[in-house]
Amino acid sequence: MILYRYVNKKFSNQYKATIGADFLTKEVQFEDRLFTLQIWDTAGQERFQSLGVAFYRGADCCVLVYDVNSMKSFENLNNWREEFLIQASPSDPENFPFVVLGNKVDVDGGNSRVVSEKKARAWCASKGNIPYFETSAKEGTNVEEAFQCIAKNALKSGEEEEICLASRISPVPSDRFWFT
């Protein structure tokens, strides 16, 4: 849903979970040049893990999205990051750009939150100071800012007209919307 929010500037309660992978594109202006972001949304469920290699190779940035209301999705960040590095086989894994999004900060006015911003930022710092944003796909909170950072990081690793982004989004749904 966060990708749908970014690309279409809307939220829909009718959004269906990703099965395997989904693909979106968006043209962005950066430093007086026009780029096309290719955004691959891969399903977080373990049963789709083997599909990753087909989508991760050639990625210029990887976005890891977890649900701030689910400790399980936060705990999956390590596995998703490692899985991406194994399957994508980037030439410089130590410096490959990642961005982490803690999504669903709007749910229940923040009362159902189980992963603190401090904990998430500490995890990102321990992995080489990965940029971190707290977002809400429903409200649009920090979505544009996060994707500006994502595009900037992707441009550092690939100076082409098309930028390829791989994302792994938490498979744990909240009681209000489904994420893949």
Brief overview, please?
The chain is α/β, with parallel strands linked by helices.
Looking at how many chains there are and whether they match, the oligomeric state comes to single chain
Q: Can you give the mean pLDDT?
A: 78
First-residue to last-residue Cα separation:
9 Å
Q: What radius of gyration results from the CA coordinates?
A: 15 Å
* Helix content class: 25-40%
Count helical runs: 5
Category by helix and strand content: alpha/beta
Q: What are the segments in which pLDDT stays under 50 over at least 5 consecutive residues?
A: 47-52, 168-180
**CATH architecture assignment:** 3-Layer(aba) Sandwich
Beta-strand proportion: 15-25%
CATH topology (fold) name: Rossmann fold
Describe the structure.
- This protein is an alpha/beta fold.
- The chain has a single domain (33-169), classed as Rossmann fold, CATH 3.40.50.300.
- It is built from five helices and six strands.
- It has a six-stranded mixed sheet, sandwiched between helices.
- It is globular and about 40 Å long.
